[in-house]
Amino acid sequence: MSDKLIRMMRSRGSEPAETRPVMLAVGGDSGSGKTTLARGLAAAIGAHRCTTIGVDDYHRYDRAQLRVLPLTALSPDANYLDIMEQHLQMLATGQPILKPVYDHRTGTFARTEYLRPRPFVIVEGLFPLFSKLSRACFDITVFLDPPEQIRHRWKIRRDAACRGYTESEVRRELARREPDSAAYIRPQRRFADIVVRFAPARDGSDPPDTPSTAELLLRPTVQHPPLTHLLTDDVGTALSLNIIRDDDGTPVDCLRVHADATADDARLLEKALWDGVGHDREIPRGLGRLADGAHSEPLAITQELLLFHLMQEVYQR
Ligand SMILES: Nc1ncnc2c1ncn2[C@@H]1O[C@H](COP(=O)(O)OP(=O)(O)OP(=O)(O)O)[C@@H](O)[C@H]1O
Ligand SMILES: O=C(CO)[C@H](O)[C@H](O)COP(=O)(O)O
């Protein structure tokens, strides 16, 4: 199927809306926070209404094989991207798939899984925005882009704690991956509707691996909530909306959430977003949760914005 055909099939009127799930892509390099973001979203939507898949499952080689091959997991040649694209098209048109499963705890493949798409499908991983065809399957696309120093720290800690690596093994692997990261992963940033950059506080007051600010690039490829009445363009305030230059020089809105944003600031924004998708919806609780149980306000606000888009998609159909 071509990307044009899949867009047509998913466009209003050609498929019954109830058979087309709302599809969200969360892309970014390893350790950039995709699973953390997606987990909170899925919990807010409700497990019975949301299917989450990690496209690491489409790896071609297991960990032992990759150790001896001149390839990294970030190379398209190390992944069945054609099967990933086929499966994304099937999910996007409401059909079930028989999905491979890669187990990060052991670095091996497990039993395939029968998966029927629920009304919301979140696809997270290294390659969801890689090809025209895969991009055509999504309603909303996000790319997580934390500063490399922070991502490395997050990955080292997580891989050592949960994936059976030593810290020096992860450091070596990060260095080995750098060329593939630059060639195949980071270029996907330009195809996202929203680019999220978590970073340390502007005054450097917080520990370096617990970022407390977020910069959200809101590209005009989707309709964002009207926030201008709520936020100033003064970057000195806790929450601000101002125009910056995108990578290609075009002006783009940037929503900034600073460390000193209070819970009240966040609730104000939350209410504006939620009013935008209808007064009858309850504001979800428990957003912003990190793997260790700590809370991150910038993460919560990012998840709120994405929930706004997912709900808006439903209301527009
Ligand atoms: N917003 C955040 N604030 C603080 N720490 C975070 C945040 N997001 C992720 N982390 C930290 O980074 C680690 C890696 O995050 P996560 O597993 O979500 O990344 P990922 O992109 O899904 O990685 P992979 O692609 O390798 O599976 C987490 O265990 C957590 O410690
Ligand atoms: O880049 C990654 C995304 O999660 C992983 O390193 C890749 O999926 C291989 O997994 P593992 O290191 O657990 O064998």
TrEMBL record:
Catalysis performed (reactions): D-ribulose 5-phosphate + ATP = D-ribulose 1,5-bisphosphate + ADP + H(+)
The protein's Enzyme Commission number: 2.7.1.19
Pathway: Carbohydrate biosynthesis; Calvin cycle
Phosphoribulokinase/uridine kinase domain mapped to chain residues: 24-203
GO BP terms in the entry: reductive pentose-phosphate cycle
Top-level class of the enzyme under EC nomenclature: transferase
Pfam families in the record: PRK
Keywords annotated in UniProt: ATP-binding, Calvin cycle, Kinase, Nucleotide-binding, Photosynthesis, Transferase
Claim: ATP-binding is one of the keywords in the record: yes
GO molecular function: ATP binding; phosphoribulokinase activity
Family statement: Belongs to the phosphoribulokinase family.
PANTHER family reported for this sequence: URIDINE KINASE (PTHR10285)
Protein name as annotated: phosphoribulokinase
Organism: Krasilnikovia cinnamomea
Lineage, highest ranks first: Bacteria, Bacillati, Actinomycetota, Actinomycetes, Micromonosporales
